[in-house]
Amino acid sequence: ILPVDTQYATARLGFNRRFDPYPVVIVRAAGAADVARTIEFARTNGITLAIRSGGHSYIGASGGSGIVLDLSAMNSIAALGNGHFHIGAGAQLQQVYGALRCQENMTIPCGSCDTVGFGGIAQGGGFGYLQQAHGITLDRVRSARVVLADGTVVDASPEADADLFWAIRGAGGGSLGVVTDFTVEAVPYKTIHVIGWYWPLASAGEALDRFASLQESGAVPRSATVALVLNNSAASLAPAQCVCVLFSTGTLAEAEATKQLFVGPGGIRATPGLGFQYDADSPACDPHAVAQRDYYRAKSAIVYGQPAADTGDYLRYWLERRVADPMFSPSDSATVNFLTFGGAVSDVGPSDTAFPHRDALLEVQFLGYLQNPTAQSIRKNQAWIQGLYADVFPRLSVHGEGCYVNYCDDDLTEAQWTSRYWGANYPRLQATKRRVDPADFFHGKQTIRL
Asked: How confident is the model at residue 283 (pLDDT cuts 50, 70, 90)?
């Protein structure tokens, strides 16, 4: 697809409206041979190459001014028997969830954003509401096909290039080669009981302490993953609120018992008159959703122990400040999401895959959205999320710091992102990079350096 083609105007765009790429050409590959030819053309002609599976890169890494290698047509999903599936790197999560459920009544621990590409989420990690029971997405990958910088097509698995197989499970996309398809081992589908309740935002510190303490104690069962969400829509209620959401694949009685850990005796009384409960057909992903683009900035944190006691106070301050700011409209949403780690995630050692954060307690995502961005509101949104992060990240990091490669953050310095994304695994990733891409052809904003 060239700039003169009618498809170009939409084909050039990624999910985040913050980025406005104008590539010289977009190549929609149909298979590994097309990928290899595109790599050869880009390498021979000295043109940069950006790889796109779903186009959701938080730093716009799946766009650019060179060639965009679009894998969206490589989206086949096929049952292989014994709970194993072939999944193309360009398949979107809504397709993956739907196909696994329809074909074999199976599912996979993965994310909640409908149009995320499987290739990106599976290489970075893959957080979601089944992670305490079944781990993260990359834990279900059993093999992958990879096109290297020299055009060679290789299989990565425990039996074939085990080192590359180790690396692609946590390195993130775009550093080592182009993964075209995966073999994954799915898990039996179970209904997810979703129960949500509210706590006053004034109790944010107490709520975060209870949330982290229960997870650290091991009291939350593996059948449950729990989210604590502070957002500006709840903060604008009277009185202001935060919300806690329980996702459980246990029985309804087990889900209710888990809720009582948070709101029952010894817990924090839920706000009367608020709350919800329903059964989800998939892990918070709508198989019928229509893709739409958003404008946002994002950051992340990996929490290794109890946050500082005043963390909730700072979270409340920044949310109330945003709600009160006339520069932001009610539709300019912002959220800080905490999600429990542990369980099956920590069954795997920190160095067993390239994803290092196995011993973490929580993961956190910070998001600030703009519905109709202007130059002034863009500056305001950036200042808001940077100020929030500057206050809160150190308080979340008193027991060790980390960030998530799939929530990549273009405010981080190279020393920060290499350390926070990969920790002690980074030197081995560099060694793998030097072996499979010695000329550093796959070089992007936050790719592994030689």
From this structure: low
